[in-house]
Amino acid sequence: MLIAGFPAGAFQTNCYVVAPAAGEECVIVDPGQDATDGVDELLREHRLKPVAVLLTHGHLDHVWSVAPVCGARDVPAWIHPDDRHLLSDPAAGWSDTSAQLFGGLTLSEPDDVRELSDGAVLKLAGLELVVDHTPGHTRGSVSFRLPGDEVMFSGDLLFAGSIGRSDLPGGDYATILRSLATKCLPLPDDTVVLPGHGPQTTIGRERAVNPYLKEAAPHAGPTRGI
């Protein structure tokens, strides 16, 4: 398994490329602000051919470069339908004050947009990625799991020591706690979490030290794989 990434733009949003190995097809996760050069560099370095872009949610810092990345390689973008409108209306995902900063920014959907659903299994680039709908940061937030390799791309659901904010349009604190309880806590401790911002972590570490996972735990019910 090859997973490589870099923090893109002023928001330092983690963009990843994922492939079975160097020299093969890959998927790109969350190409954010000014991510095109970094994506191109990783593709050249590892001799990869992208077949899709996967979006954990529709916030601007995660989708900024999706149209040019998809257009340059003629590949589809995958996003949950509840966040699809943010591809062409990024200000809708921010507070009124923040939205004013992006009022002059014009984005558009890629030519080929496909919609994600909870529990779907995407068979792309020789990979099988499980889609978990994890609302709370946005209504259409998702995470992607590689179950055989115990890897989770958590987007802005779960960070090392923290979680995504829930005070923006479409966010809800009780909902994000339910997503943590039902989609994160049942996972094995050795599951590697690759978040949308900051360093990687593991479910076991977050179970032990993350106060938000501790708050979510009473809602989780029986756990498995611990």
TrEMBL record:
The keyword Ribosomal protein does not apply. GO terms for molecular function: hydrolase activity; metal ion binding. It comes from the Bacteria. InterPro entries: MBL_Glyoxalase_II, Metallo-B-lactamas, RibonucZ/Hydroxyglut_hydro. Keywords: Hydrolase, Metal-binding, Zinc. Its cofactor is Zn(2+). This is MBL fold metallo-hydrolase. It comes from Nonomuraea mesophila.
